[in-house]
């Protein structure tokens, strides 16, 4: 079995030596050669009769290299996955590591040395009830609450006859006759139809109608009366053409005189228990004051995501600041690791190294909290996260039978699956942190929280563009 020796240089740096002896790899080497002999068909030899020395000469170096490399990676993975220590980045060969000559004749021991960067051991500060964080609570304008309540009352109300001047929201029932000039056309087309005032095209005709009452007359171009209505729509629904009329290509003039036969208006529902039950559920709300409070809460909930995003941003910033001194990093190792592993992106990352270092600290903080809170992610939670994301692509509304194939593909893709699991873990971690800290509620208007949220999102987008640009440079190289 290979020997692994770790020499701690200091609290943050170590050198790992992995030695693979002859007895560790020789059996595998011989096995590979014998399998190649049994399976391979080498020109000039019968199958299964190729001499081992010949196979060694042809393939020995590559076989030995693969065996040694596999065993080395296995040992490195075991070291990196140990629970006792957390390492930064990945092992990198020491700077004076000589190239390896895989000599299948000498069968000598192979020794490899790697630099390791160790994560700092720290006591986390800032995740307790005594540490206060700003949490924005949106203050909803009283007028907006009243508007929502009135809209609900109209929704659950009933249409009643109105003799008052027509206004927006009314339904007007017309009896209309075709005109010939300024007079009704002899044997002209007659029709009756209802139309909502908000469906009438903006302009002089709509303004005139809104100044009328039941019994008044209005002249209009019937094909321009309803906003966005096609000629075919008007014939079918306003002129009431039958299919036979359409098939026979029946036509009519554009100008009509309409008599307002009746006007109906949505009367708001009374503030009764029946109304409250319809709006909030049975016996949930019993009075106007509580109804307004519930509506205000509901309107504020639409900004909950923005408030949580801003809180998450503050948590990240504050926790890094509070713990930075207790979280020294093996900076020299990390910089060398970036140059070795990132190549094209290394220069961009190193140019803003302090931010990159804080990203690593934040990862360590999240890992520590995940262990503290014993956060686990289930398959069902991942599936629900996938459904939520896919439904979001369709504006939140989609038949599950259309979502299922997309979700299935997402769950079958390893990168997508890992991303979903990470999102679930991040959500669970955030809400655990939110429960553990002190929240200082800060009243804020809808406009102000939107401005703050947009500013944060813009900053994140610009940062993502820089990272993407670095990635693109890496791919070009």
Describe this structure in words.
- This protein is of the alpha+beta class and 477 residues long.
- Residues 469-477 have low confidence and may be disordered.
- A hairpin with a 2-residue loop joins β7 (171-180) and β8 (183-184).
- It folds into three domains: 3-118, Trigger factor ribosome-binding domain (Alpha-Beta Plaits, 2-Layer Sandwich), CATH 3.30.70; 132-140 and 299-476, Trigger factor, domain 2, CATH 1.10.3120; 158-267, Transcription elongation factor, GreA/GreB, C-terminal domain (Chitinase A, domain 3).
- Helices cover 51% and strands 18% of the residues.
Count of individual domains: 3
Provide the low-confidence segments as ranges: 469-477
Write down the CATH topology of the largest domain.
Answer: Trigger factor, domain 2
Q: Percentage of helical residues? A: 40-55%
Average pLDDT reading: 88
CATH architecture of the largest domain, please?
Orthogonal Bundle
Number of E strands: 12
């Amino acid at each position: 079995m290979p020997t692994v020796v770790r020499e701690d240089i200091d609290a943050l740096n170590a050198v790992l030596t992995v030695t693979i002896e002859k007895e560790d790899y020789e059996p595998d080497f011989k096995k590979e050669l014998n399998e190649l002999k049994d399976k391979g068909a080498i020109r000039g030899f019968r199958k299964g009769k190729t001499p081992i020395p010949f196979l060694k000469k042809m393939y020995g170096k590559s076989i030995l290299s693969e065996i040694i490399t596999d065993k080395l990676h296995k040992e490195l993975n075991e070291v990196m996955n140990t629970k006792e220590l957390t390492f930064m980045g990945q092992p990198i060969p020491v700077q004076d590591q000589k190239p390896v000559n895989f000599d299948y004749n000498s069968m000598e021991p192979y020794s490899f040395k790697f630099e390791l960067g160790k994560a700092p051991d720290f006591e986390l500060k800032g995740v307790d009830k005594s540490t206060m964080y700003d949490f924005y609570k949106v203050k909803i304008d009283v007028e907006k609450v009243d508007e929502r309540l009135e809209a609900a009352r109209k929704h659950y109300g009933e249409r009643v006859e109105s003799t008052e001047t027509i206004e927006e929201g009314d339904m007007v029932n017309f009896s209309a006759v075709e005109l010939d000039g300024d007079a009704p056309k002899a044997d002209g087309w007659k029709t009756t139809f209802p139309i909502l005032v908000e469906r009438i095209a903006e302009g002089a005709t709509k303004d005139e109608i809104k100044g009328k009452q039941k019994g008044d007359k209005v002249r209009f171009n019937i094909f321009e009366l309803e906003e966005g209505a096609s000629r075919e729509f008007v014939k079918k629904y306003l002129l009431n053409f039958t299919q036979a009329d359409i098939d026979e290509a029946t036509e009519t003039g554009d100008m009509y005189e309409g008599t307002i036969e009746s006007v109906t208006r949505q009367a708001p529902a009374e503030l009764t228990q029946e109304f409250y039950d319809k709006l909030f559920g049975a016996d949930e709300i019993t009075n106007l004051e509580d109804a307004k409070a519930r509506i205000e809460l509901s309107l504020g909930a639409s900004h909950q995501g923005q408030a949580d995003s801003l809180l998450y941003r503050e948590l990240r910033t504050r926790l890094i600041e509070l713990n930075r001194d207790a979280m020294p990093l093996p900076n020299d190792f990390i910089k060398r690791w970036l140059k070795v592993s990132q190549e094209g992106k290394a220069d961009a990352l190193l140019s803003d190294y302090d931010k990159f270092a804080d990203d690593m600290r934040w990862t360590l903080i999240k890992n520590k909290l995940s262990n503290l809170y014993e956060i686990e992610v289930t398959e069902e939670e991942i599936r629900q996260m996938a459904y939520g994301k896919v439904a979001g692509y369709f504006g939140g509304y989609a038949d599950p039978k259309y979502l299922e194939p997309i979700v299935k593909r997402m769950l079958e893709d390893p990168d997508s699956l890992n991303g979903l699991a990470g999102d679930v873990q991040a959500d669970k971690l955030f809400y655990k942190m939110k429960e553990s800290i002190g929240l200082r509620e800060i009243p804020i208007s809808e406009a102000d929280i939107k401005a703050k949220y947009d500013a944060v999102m813009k900053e994140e987008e610009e940062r993502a563009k820089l990272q993407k640009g670095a990635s693109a440079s890496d791919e070009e190289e």
